[in-house]
Amino acid sequence: MSDIPGVHSEASTPRSATALPVYLLVGLYFGVVLVKSEAASWYRIQEMFRFESFHMFGVIGAAVVTGMITTALLRRSGVKSRDHQTIKVTDKARGWKRYVYGGLTFGVGWGLAGVCPGPILTLLGAGVWPMLIVLGFALLGTWLYGALQNRLPH
Fold first, then answer.
1. What is the Cα gyration radius of the chain?
2. Residue 128 and residue 113: Cα distance in Å, rounded?
3. How far is CA 48 from the centre of its chain?
4. Nearest 10 degrees: CA dihedral of 35, 39, 44, 47?
5. H or E element: which one contains 18?
């Protein structure tokens, strides 16, 4: 089982220590892209919520299209993981409640903090120290979801 929801490999094997530098470099690259594209900019996010600029809609749209293409390629190609296991992408669960409630929760948090979870660590790395508060509440929200998961609609 993969540790990525919806992506499963035929067998689970422990990750090697050599994978950590690769993950760190990919995360560093992602952080640089977020900063350079201004996707981590509070001002750009506010422009988007006020419908004053297309910039963030373009960034998000590009990410959605990239994700759709990648998912389609993963489903059709039979590509293998680093551990030589076949990657299978499962269909999402049916129903609307989980997506509406999850989207509303995410959107309210995004609107209040001015940042989605992706750039939190990037902004901390850039020296935006108030993001420590946002990170704390993001971790609290994750913990609360885990504690209340069985009582929430899915």
1. 18
2. 13
3. 19
4. 180
5. none
DSSP element (H, E) containing 133: helix 131-148
Residues in the chain, overall count? 154
d(CA 76, CA 148): 36
Alpha helices of 18-127 — where are they, by DSSP H? 19-36, 42-49, 55-77, 97-113, 120-125
Structure tokens given for 67? 């994700």
Distance CA 115, CA 62 (A): 18
Spatial CA neighbour of 71 closest among 59, 63, 82:
63
**Widest distance between CA atoms in the chain:** 48
* pTM score above 0.85: no
pLDDT tens digit sequence for 45-82: 888 888 998 988 998 899 999 999 998 988 888 888 87
Cα separation, 55 vs 60, in Å, equals: 9
